[in-house]
Amino acid sequence: MRFHIMTLFPDIFNSYMGESIMKRGVEKGIIEVNVYNIRDFSNNKHKKVDDYPFGGGAGMVMTPQPIYDTYKHIIETNNIEKPRVIYLTPKGKVYKQSIAQDISKEEDIILLCGHYEGIDERILELIVTDEVSIGDYVLTGGELPALILIDSISRLIPGVLNQNESFEEESFKDNLLEYPQYTRPREFMGLEVPEVLLSGNHKNIDEWRHNESIKITKERRPDLYKKACK
Ligand code: ADE
């Protein structure tokens, strides 16, 4: 899968993608991350990428020309036909695991990171296919949300995670939160690992874990619990 990122702050991506599981996915050739600096595509002699909003108001708005030309460059140089272009914005659809799963089926994804008071609305009409928010709070830009999408989507692509890092049993599978995990030692600061996990009886272990998942989901996320019971 190829991620193409349109941003004013390309350096943010290099350090994150150079670590741990993301790094491994890139080295194995399973994921590719191409970062494009929108400023490089500005026709303005001072490389300006923003301007005052028509109608007045606080802050600056990103102008359409550099964004549109970055987009054209991406689709032309990478031979992409009808790309999904995701604009990260607090006004978007709230992100969740099922959206990550849906996007993970694409070959190419373009992520558009906004800044300032947002981008010119005509860009949304012309090129954006999806608007995504990572939650009900406002950040200074779309870079952290873009990294969240890249991370959560990449780990769903076969080969990025090792077998023992499997995502088969994890939170949000079947709308349940994950059961508690324990490792050595058996006793820590007077707290014991639940007996059933030491029993070697896999039927009982599975049953215990399933019940714990239900209990924790009911307590913490009644909204998910309702869906899980459907
Ligand atoms: N840009 C600023 N805040 C954001 C959010 N919550 N989600 C996605 N993009 C954003």
Automatic annotation (TrEMBL):
<comment type="function">
    <text>Specifically methylates guanosine-37 in various tRNAs.</text>
</comment>
<feature type="binding site">
    <location>
        <begin position="134"/>
        <end position="139"/>
    </location>
    <ligand>
        <name>S-adenosyl-L-methionine</name>
    </ligand>
</feature>
<feature type="binding site">
    <location>
        <position position="114"/>
    </location>
    <ligand>
        <name>S-adenosyl-L-methionine</name>
    </ligand>
</feature>
<feature type="domain" description="tRNA methyltransferase TRMD/TRM10-type">
    <location>
        <begin position="1"/>
        <end position="227"/>
    </location>
</feature>
<comment type="similarity">
    <text>Belongs to the RNA methyltransferase TrmD family.</text>
</comment>
<dbReference type="InterPro" id="IPR029028">
    <property type="entry name" value="Alpha/beta_knot_MTases"/>
</dbReference>
<keyword id="KW-0963">Cytoplasm</keyword>
<comment type="subunit">
    <text>Homodimer.</text>
</comment>
<dbReference type="Pfam" id="PF01746">
    <property type="entry name" value="tRNA_m1G_MT"/>
</dbReference>
<dbReference type="InterPro" id="IPR029026">
    <property type="entry name" value="tRNA_m1G_MTases_N"/>
</dbReference>
<dbReference type="InterPro" id="IPR002649">
    <property type="entry name" value="tRNA_m1G_MeTrfase_TrmD"/>
</dbReference>
<dbReference type="InterPro" id="IPR016009">
    <property type="entry name" value="tRNA_MeTrfase_TRMD/TRM10"/>
</dbReference>
<protein>
    <recommendedName>
        <fullName>tRNA (guanine-N(1)-)-methyltransferase</fullName>
        <ecNumber>2.1.1.228</ecNumber>
    </recommendedName>
</protein>
<dbReference type="InterPro" id="IPR023148">
    <property type="entry name" value="tRNA_m1G_MeTrfase_C_sf"/>
</dbReference>
<keyword id="KW-0819">tRNA processing</keyword>
<keyword id="KW-0489">Methyltransferase</keyword>
<keyword id="KW-0808">Transferase</keyword>
<dbReference type="GO" id="GO:0005829">
    <property type="term" value="C:cytosol"/>
</dbReference>
<keyword id="KW-0949">S-adenosyl-L-methionine</keyword>
<dbReference type="GO" id="GO:0052906">
    <property type="term" value="F:tRNA (guanine(37)-N1)-methyltransferase activity"/>
</dbReference>
<dbReference type="GO" id="GO:0002939">
    <property type="term" value="P:tRNA N1-guanine methylation"/>
</dbReference>
